[in-house]
Amino acid sequence: MIKAAYRMVGHNFNNDRIENDFYATPLDAIEDLIKYEKFDGKIWECSCGDGAISDPLIKAGYDVYSSDLIDRGYGEVKDFLTTNEKVDNIITNPPFNLATEFTLHGLNSINKKMALLCKLSFLEGKKRASVLFNQDKLKKL
Question: Most buried of the four, 5, 32, 109, 138, by CB within 10 Å?
Fold first, then answer.
């Protein structure tokens, strides 16, 4: 239970960073998203890594397009931040060092919903507050 709580806030137990900020999404996180949030239309997982988000979505019956900047053997190799495609939905766990950029670009790339699986500390910071949280686009639970 304690490790799960630390993981939710993005704690790195070994104090090591993986190149390109690749940390696979825990299965329980995407299972909970599928359980509590429904998506209509195609989903783009634009930072797909090894398919940790895409595979459970596909198994749940969603139409998923997967891409990543780095070839990890899953999805198409593509730099999401340089695309101009529009999709119904985006679900991703972006590299934390690019989470703000992914959010801003993602909001301009969707027709319906975007779900970002980020560390809780993503909600902090003056930069994100001024460019993200004043858009009245966040879901209120």
Answer: 109
